[in-house]
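Today's session is about reading a structure prediction critically. Students often jump straight to the picture, but the first step is always the sequence itself: look for stretches that repeat, for charged clusters, for runs of hydrophobic residues. Only then move on to the predicted structure, which in these notes is written as discrete structure tokens rather than atom positions. Here is the chain we will use throughout the hour.
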Amino acid sequence: MTTPRIWFYHDGRHPHIYRYEPPMYREQFAACIDELAGTPVEAVSFCLGEGRTMLHETQAGELLGHNVTEWDHLIFRRAHQNAMGLIESGDDPLRLVCERARLRGIRLYPCLLVQNPGPESATVRCSDFRHKNPHLEIRARANHADLLWMDGLDFVHEEVRQERFAVIEETLSTYDVAGFELQLNVQPRFFHPDEVGSGRGVMTDFVGQIHEAVRRSGEDRELAVRVPLDLEMGYEIGLDVTEWIRQGIVDVVLPETFGGPHRLDPNLDFRPLLELTQDTDCSVIPALHSSVGSDRVGEGPISMMRAQACNYWDQGVDGLYLAQWFHHWPYEAGFYERLRELPFPDIMATRDKYYYIPTDSSFAAPAGAEAQLPVPLETDTPAQVSLVISDDLHAAHEEGRVHEVLLRIGLAQNTELDDVLFRLNECELPLDTCRRINQMYRMQAPRHRGGPTYWYVFRLGADAWPQRGENTLEVTLRHRDAAVVGTVSLRDVELEIHYLMGRSSPRGFVDADLGYYEHVVT
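Below is the predicted structure for this chain, in token form.
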């Protein structure tokens, strides 16, 4: 059986068991599958609770809230009420999802959050296993107690691995599933910092044990692993993904940026991982996120989804893993419109696209997951950033399909007296051809008021169009306003490509020349 191309991650909680007033009915619980019926989604990765505790009928694990008499969190109590109500009525929640997935022709992969923090982070959600075994946590040795993610389980302990494996083995032997997913990119620390080297072998053996259980439970079942895209970063925390692929103990690799925050990024490079899996049976299906989180955009529009998906397909990936898309719930027409095109890069090729480079804003990214922007600008010192696109603009131009190409560059902490030079692929972009937009002070904004001080918006001519593949934007601060202190930074880079349906076709009722980009920026 071939590996599904379009996967959908459903965390089983936020748009689901948290939302419904108890008692939750079987039809409501199964709706998480019905809502994806008739879409290109071939597989659903369904999360088993929040990792420490579960939300289905389990003997190997523990039900969320089974050990709670007084609740300090209403939503977690509601989750317990809904799960317990279904179980007591004879409807195991996970079995309902598996049966409905089978009915709708969707393959179901239970997903375990392999690591999660200790009891202090969410007492009422925690298991007795975690409450009673603080000595099994990484932070049990005080010399590293203050480091990030030290309150997770230390997988050097056999008891830890046995507890995790028991949940996995029970699921495989009890439910009608297509395989299993290990989510290894949440709270991604698995060993004491001094024991990561020896821990890699321990984790490889553990993954091999799970793979053997998956295959033993069903010939066509697959083990999928969600891991950091940066293989070196994964290696440094004990995940030797290269060795897993070499040994053939993983069937699907689901790469995403290390640890979070997880945002839409069309510039990620999957080629090193694809080279590793070449001539193997292992598939590479990268996580495709939809959140932008900038000062202007929360969730990416369809044009951003196309840009990201086409860049990934262009590298030869085996599919797309729609991670965190459940945040769009309740799903409306725009959600389904985005889903419809994703498997077809040829259909998306000459449809509007919106590329951008992620910028650090309100997110606090851990080491190894920093955004490419912002970049501080020093006087007379060029700063460069890379932007990847999959569009062949000149080929589309020959067919009369290109309407306009807009490059927007946002600088922070600059003034109208600063002198800035912009180059795209060594081609200078004259300032007299750009629309400069003053946003030094905003009384209100679409999301939050922080952002660029000035936007420089270029409507690029064909001689300055970006090329298919990697493009280099170079920004040089040639003169700094002497009356101000502080550092100017390159904060935002966006590229929008607008297509026509055919030669000389209109763009809606009013064409974009009457001020489209002013509307987008403000």
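Discussion point for the tutorial: The domain at 6-355 is CATH 3.20.20.80 (TIM Barrel).
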